[in-house]
Amino acid sequence: MTVVDKSVAIPGDLLSDDASRAGEGTYVEDGKVYAHYYGIINDREKIKIIPITSKYIPKRNDVIIGIVTDIGFSNWIIDINSPYDALLHISEYPERLEMYNMSKHLRIGEMIMAHISDVDYKMKTELTMQDEHAGILRNGRLIEISHNRIPRLIGRNGSMINMLHKECKCKIFVAQNGRVWLSGREENVDLACEAILKIDNEAHTSGLTDRISEFLMVNKGRIS
Amino acid sequence: MNAKPEKFIIDGLRLDGRRPDELRPLKISAGVLKRADGSCYLELGANKVMAAVYGPRQVHPRHMQDATKAIVRYRYNMASFSVGDRKRPGPDRRSIEISKVCRDAFQPVVIKERHPRLAIDVFVEVLQAGAGTRTAGINAASVALADAGIAMKSLVASCAVGKVDDTLVLDLMKEEDNYGQADMPIAVIPTTGEITLLQMDGHLTRDEFGTGFKMAMEGCQKIHEAQKEALAKCYQMKDDGGEQVGE
Amino acid sequence: MGSNNIIAEIQRDHMYNLLMRGERVDGRAFDEYRPISIETGVIARAEGSAHVKIGESQVVVGVKIQIGTPFSDTPDKGVIITNAELIPMASPSFESGPPKDYAIELARLVDRGIRESKALDLDRLCIEEGEKVWMVFIDIHALDYDGNLVDAASLGALAALLTATIPNKKYEVSDEDVQLTVREMPIAVTAIEFEGEIMVDPCLHEEAVASSRITVISNQDGSICGIQKIGTDSLTEDQVNRAVDMAINKAREIRERFFINI
């Protein structure tokens, strides 16, 4: 078998004869590295495979945008755009609350920005809102893109998202679970959404930052 | 239904002009459905099958959950219009057995431990049946699983070998399937040669079994190449922002 | 499921803001369909078949024509049986198992269009009174559900019937297969009501947000052969009238575009 030389891997593709180079999305068998996913090959010190699309699986310390789907005895049940729901315990809310009061502060259907504080071996996922970025998101617009493309949307050292902020003049919160929340003037949010969907669609292409920059320039007249 | 042909092989060629070790024309397109997490449309000879994958996703009813890993479910179904005489909709004993052996064919490759309590659902719909629907379904399901971003050890490729006029033939067509002397579908992990599905009915000598098995293995390798090509092409199209082509 | 409804609620605000500007989520006009494609003859084993796409929604309809015995109360008439399989492939919300109420509603709606428009001449489908008649099975197979399956299924059924042949040879009725006679072209047009506005061909988002929709099936002469209001909200008389007018116009356009030459 020869080592695959291309940019996209398919499960079972041999990636390297050097087991020490096995990164995320790969596995080692008989000292060789193989692909676990249909995805993009990221060939640096380690070889990683980034799935083209996959479901968001919660990880500790991720920032997520969640939607309250139910209120339990002392927890809010939060949809995090994943097959796994998350729990926000009453004690993790920014203020001290009494149980009977829970639905007054955070209702079903409301959106929050929060951190994942713990994921156990059964994938029970717990959230916290006790840090400065956390909060309830009201009156904005929510869009969902593939969580695999969030790094592209942020860009190297935040270059892409900073450009969007600057050019679209609206608030944009990006979460690792693929949700993006925007708030501002309707036209501005429209333009930002279009740009984000463009990034989502063209994430694998090179020169993306330049193309988005050009797109924003051309459409600049639409916003105020 | 056509009557039994006098001879299945004339001058070394089969009724449809193939050599004994040749596959029927194969066409695979990945990523053809919007709602499913992964999908694949496949034509093999007269077969037309669509596969869709949902998951990993929550399991209902809850008692089917496994607290330590994901479960794989597989539903093979024939459309009522896929066969000569209309088939009554819904599962029958045949499709339930096929669903089971196909599900088992994927157990060794799907990485389940990462997703406790969830399910990976595979749906295979036979839109037109033309002998070898289970193998066509497995080949499509395999591509759909990859397209859904499911972690796998490898794809799975599947193909049947049979016997007509005392000759071993690869990838049976309708007449060979109906009136042949044997039919042996297999599914393998092409990268390792491990077998994940094996069924056989009819009559084979010990030697025929050995030789036929090798033929089927080689057929699976060819199918594996086509599966990989389809996925690479699907990526290319996403890359170009191009339109996906369906049927 | 639950969370989908909640997400639909969040989408609702966005849809409302768009509506104020006279827009829809995907930029269409209120009376505009998504792209429609109809391909016939896709299933060689069926006597008639069609693959229909409306936007990203996809259905395959197969027509099987077989010999059976007539119903005792109509011994001299052929039989139409329409069935829809909303298989779990097509949507995360569709479940395996016997057809649910929404699948039965869909099948009956398509059936009603074909039957009430008298598109098929049931008398001519009789071979031997009381003994042998042609049974026409219309099987609808949904592959991808992105809203408005009713219109896709009904277009598919009509296209499949228009291209179907009666298998005389296979059943030794005569030595020539003939085209199935289709006398009418009923077209279903579905619209949602959202904040008082009527919009045809709802996509999935719009179906989720609007609590009511209405399907109107009309004939070539602009007469109506079937109506169904689907959903939990009420409609005003004015809304119903607007939906009916829109449906008749749209049906005419679709008929002219796809079926005049079929």
What does this structure look like?
The complex is a heterotrimer of chains A (224), B (247) and C (262). Chain A is of the alpha+beta class. Helices cover 21% and strands 31% of the residues of chain A. Chain A is built from 5 helices and 15 strands. Chain B has 247 residues and is of the alpha+beta class. Helix content of chain B is 28%, strand content 30%. Chain B has helices at residues 93-106, 133-147, 174-179, 206-239, and strands at 9-10, 13-14, 26-30, 38-44, 47-58, 71-78, 118-128, 157-164, 167-170, 182-189, 194-198, 201-202. In chain B, the strands form 3 sheets. A 5-stranded mixed beta sheet of chain B has the order 3-4-5-7-6. In chain B, strands 8, 9, 10, 11 and 12 form a 5-stranded antiparallel beta sheet that branches. A two-stranded antiparallel sheet of chain B has the order 1-2. Chain B starts with 8 loop residues before the first strand and ends in an 8-residue tail after the last helix. The model of chain C has no long low-confidence stretch (mean pLDDT 93). The termini of chain C are far apart. In chain C, strands 1, 2, 3, 4, 5 and 6 form a 6-stranded mixed beta sheet that branches. Chain C has a 4-stranded antiparallel beta sheet with strand order 10-9-11-12, with helices on both faces. In chain C, strand 9 (187-194) and strand 10 (197-200) form a beta hairpin. Chain C has 5 helices and 12 strands. With 262 residues, chain C is an alpha+beta fold. Chain C is elongated. Chains in contact: A-B, A-C, B-C. Chains A and B meet through loops of A and strand 5 and helix 4 of B.
What's the CATH C level of chain B?
Answer: Alpha Beta
Strand content of chain B: 25-35%
At the fourth level of CATH, the homologous superfamily of chain C is GHMP Kinase, N-terminal domain
CATH architecture of chain B: 2-Layer Sandwich
Outline the biggest β-sheet of chain C. Answer: 6 strands, mixed
Specify the biggest β-sheet of chain B: 5 strands, mixed
Binned, the helix content of chain B reads: 25-40%
Q: Helix content range of the residues of chain C, please?
A: 25-40%
CATH topology of chain B, which one? Ribosomal Protein S5, domain 2
- What is the overall number of helices of chain C? 5
Contiguous uncertain segments of 5+ residues of chain C: none
Keywords, please?
heterotrimer; B: 247 residues; alpha+beta; Ribosomal Protein S5, domain 2; five-stranded antiparallel beta sheet; 12 strands; C: 262 residues; 5 helices
